[in-house]
Design brief:
Blueprint (H helix, E strand, L loop, with lengths): L3 E6 L3 H12 L6 E6 L2 H10 L2 E7 L12 E8 L11 E3 L4 H14 L14 E5 L8 H12 L5 E5 L6 H4 L8 H6 L5 H11 L1 E3 L2 E4 L6 H4 L3 H12 L5 E5 L7 H6 L3 E5 L4 H16 L3 H5 L1 E4 L18 H13 L5
Parallel strand pairs: 1-2, 1-3, 3-4, 4-5, 6-10, 6-11, 7-9, 7-10, 11-12
Antiparallel strand pairs: 8-9
Length: 333
């Protein structure tokens, strides 16, 4: 597949080469890169070989460069006010992930990105749902996803109305799950392209940040969830972890589409009563097949939970999940 060209120009040589190195390490970054620290060599290169995007330090840019052979220009803002209002920009000191997203968004708007390439095999959905509250479901999902991501490409989706993950992960997010759901009526290629550009990285696990407003979930119909699963099945991911809640319309149908379902259980009377009602509801609605592929997870009392959800290695919960995967992974085929 032909890759597009990106030129990076910054008078600070160390910054320019470190940014190029960091971007080149991103497996899904579809650009060949050229790096410059001065405008003379940049101008000569662009005259010989135009580039799709020129990423250039704000203080190195001047208006004549618009005609030098870059299809799109992005300014690396260094603190001063931007005078070229029509040119997209991003802070020079943003994370590599955010700079990469800005590049991808700009290229997508110009129609210059290759179409998303699907996996050879359909993605498998791992559903996690329990009617029991405050039982480490989301922590379990994140640990499961990061362990699987050591050897597989994995996507995590959270269906909570109020997850608090931005605070728990000490991150701020520019977009969330609702932005992806808003694009469901578009073509599969457009939806997947947006998903790949917006996915956040968490220790190898890819994730779309949960919705900021819970009402954005309640308005999604079952048919729309099925549309999302259909698109994700053809995505580049090997596993998609669905951290499900009662906010999902057609929850049982979503669970039916999962290769395996994990239900966290507890032994107290309230928890047993809730689980009994849930299982009776599955049976009464002719979703007995969901119960058949459900693994009940009776989590022990952990002495050492992950302090940092982005790095669960060495925690008791990580060891529990690793043992569970060794025992169960073959059942997902």
């Amino acid at each position: 597949m032909k890759r597009n060209l990106l030129a990076i120009c910054d008078p600070e040589q160390e910054y320019a080469y470190r940014l190029m190195d960091a971007l080149s390490r991103r497996e899904d970054f579809p650009f060949e890169m050229l790096t410059f620290t001065g405008e003379e060599r940049l101008k000569e290169s662009l005259a010989r070989q135009p580039v799709q995007i020129l990423l250039i330090a704000q203080r190195a840019f001047h208006a004549e460069m618009k005609g030098w052979g870059a299809f799109r220009i992005i300014l690396l803002k260094e603190g001063e006010e931007i005078t070229q209002k029509e040119i997209p920009f991003i802070s020079k000191y943003s994370s590599v992930t955010r700079i990469m997203k800005k590049i991808m968004e700009t290229a997508a708007e110009a129609g210059g990105l290759p179409p998303p390439q699907p996996n050879e095999h359909p993605a498998r959905f791992l559903g996690v749902y329990t009617p029991v509250r405050r039982c480490l479901q989301t922590t379990f999902c994140l640990v499961l996803g990061q362990i699987l991501a050591r050897n597989h490409r994995v996507l995590y989706l959270n269906f909570e109305s109020c997850s608090g993950l931005d605070r728990l992960l000490c991150r701020s997010f520019e977009s969330d799950f609702s932005d992806l759901l808003f694009r469901l009526p578009k073509t599969e290629e457009e939806v997947l392209g947006y998903l790949y550009r917006q996915a956040e990285q968490l220790n190898g696990l890819e994730m779309i940040p949960p919705v900021f407003r819970g009402s954005d979930l309640s308005g999604i119909r079952c048919e729309e969830w099925m549309r999302l699963l259909e698109i994700l099945r053809a995505s580049r991911y090997e596993y998609v972890i669905l951290d499900l809640t009662d906010a999902v319309s057609g929850l049982f149908e979503v669970l039916r589409n999962c290769s395996r379902v994990y239900t966290i259980v507890r032994e107290d009377g309230f928890a047993r009563a809730k689980l009994a009602q849930y299982e009776a509801a599955l049976e009464g609605a002719d979703y007995g097949d969901v119960a058949e592929k459900t693994s009940r997870c009776s989590l022990p009392v952990f002495r050492k939970l992950p302090r940092d959800l982005a790095h669960p290695e060495g925690s008791d919960l990580a060891q529990y999940v690793e043992t569970m995967l060794e025992r169960k992974e073959g059942d997902w085929e």
